[in-house]
């Protein structure tokens, strides 16, 4: 590449973003691909009746919530109707529509309301401190938590206390599962472990089980695409940049090393303004910490709908056999599914 071409490209490994608690709170809304998600646009798979059942139940939940919040009229003098359980937990495998349903509920709800991943909420508490974060979200009508984590007991119990205080003040909470260690593909044991971890808070949640197949694999051959060489990645990135696209170009090793220096809450800032992500020299990972950081990064790339061009090993093969047989199997499978979609251009209408 010429120096002029290189200057037109972004290098993620050179970015060292900062993020404030106010910025995190301001971003607590559904990612772009779910900006118009609705119950009507969710397409349940007829082979898995639990999808339709979850859709119907969330419609009821939303309807009761709206009725309870409707202002004016004779009934405004009465105590609002109470939903039997103020929390709902969507438990199921990846690619069955949990995030789409969660975003649909968020769009129906009255504000103030917030939508974010578990990592974003823990980052908010870390940035503002517990009490200030609590005050920032107090009064919310609905809080949606995508990919509730059970990997870190400390963070789990922090969020348990945090949500307990918010729910005690009238906030309703909806969450999707990110299955715990050794809960494989479909996430069969996520609900039980979630309820155990949150102890007393569990009585406030109704669990909705959603079965099904990963929709991202329905329209592809199930493999991530790769280009033939690093030089081809360079040429592709340069040509796209010359046409006015904002393209990042990094060596895979440099990206992985850089992710270790940036808190996951800031990963979204790493790709700020990036329209296409190019990677050279993808190879298998054998360090689980590095692999989990890549999973968190790919989640943000996927949310931002940034396609990937890569050389070397196909991205859906970066996690070694020991990882895929271990406790974080489901996280890796979800990331593999997302990287397949990002490299094949199969960005879906719902998750």
TrEMBL record:
Pfam families: AFG1_ATPase. Keywords: ATP-binding, Cell cycle, Cell division, Nucleotide-binding. It comes from the Bacteria. GO terms for molecular function: ATP binding; ATP hydrolysis activity. GO terms for cellular component: cytoplasm. One of its GO terms (biological process) is cell division. NCBIfam families: ZapE. This is Cell division protein ZapE. It comes from Agromyces protaetiae. The lineage of its organism: Bacteria, Bacillati, Actinomycetota, Actinomycetes, Micrococcales.
């Amino acid at each position: 590449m010429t120096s002029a071409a290189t200057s037109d490209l972004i290098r993620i490994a050179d970015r060292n973003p900062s993020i404030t608690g106010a910025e995190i709170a301001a971003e607590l809304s559904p990612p772009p691909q779910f900006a118009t998600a609705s119950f009507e646009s969710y397409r349940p798979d007829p082979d898995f009746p639990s999808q339709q059942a979850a859709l119907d139940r969330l419609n009821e939940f939303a309807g009761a919530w709206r009725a309870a919040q409707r202002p004016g009229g004779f009934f405004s003098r009465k105590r609002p109707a109470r939903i039997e359980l103020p929390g709902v937990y969507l438990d199921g495998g990846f690619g069955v529509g949990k995030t789409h349903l969660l975003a649909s509920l968020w769009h129906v709800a009255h504000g103030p309301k917030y939508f974010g991943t578990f990592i974003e909420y823990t980052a908010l508490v870390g940035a503002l401190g517990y009490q200030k974060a609590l005050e920032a979200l107090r009064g919310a009508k609905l809080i949606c938590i995508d990919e509730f984590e059970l990997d870190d007991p400390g963070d789990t119990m922090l969020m348990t206390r945090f949500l307990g205080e918010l729910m005690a003040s009238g906030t309703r909470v909806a969450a999707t599962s990110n299955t715990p260690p050794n809960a494989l593909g479909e996430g069969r044991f996520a609900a039980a472990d979630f309820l155990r971890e949150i102890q007393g808070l569990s009585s406030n949640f109704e669990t909705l089980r959603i079965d099904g197949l990963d929709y991202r694999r329905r329209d592809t051959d199930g493999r991530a695409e790769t280009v033939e060489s690093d030089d081809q990645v360079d040429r592709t990135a340069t040509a796209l940049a010359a046409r006015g696209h904002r393209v990042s170009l990094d060596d895979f090793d440099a990206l992985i090393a850089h992710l270790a220096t940036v808190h996951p809450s800031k990963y979204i800032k790493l790709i700020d303004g990036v329209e296409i992500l190019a990677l050279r020299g993808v190879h298998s990972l054998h360090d689980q910490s590095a692999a989990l950081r890549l999973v968190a990064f790919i989640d943000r790339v996927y949310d931002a709908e940034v396609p990937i061009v890569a050389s070397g090993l196909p991205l859906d093969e970066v996690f070694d056999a020991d990882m895929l047989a271990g406790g974080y199997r489901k996280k890796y499978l979800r990331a593999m599914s997302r990287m397949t979609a990002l490299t094949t251009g199969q960005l879906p209408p719902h998750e």
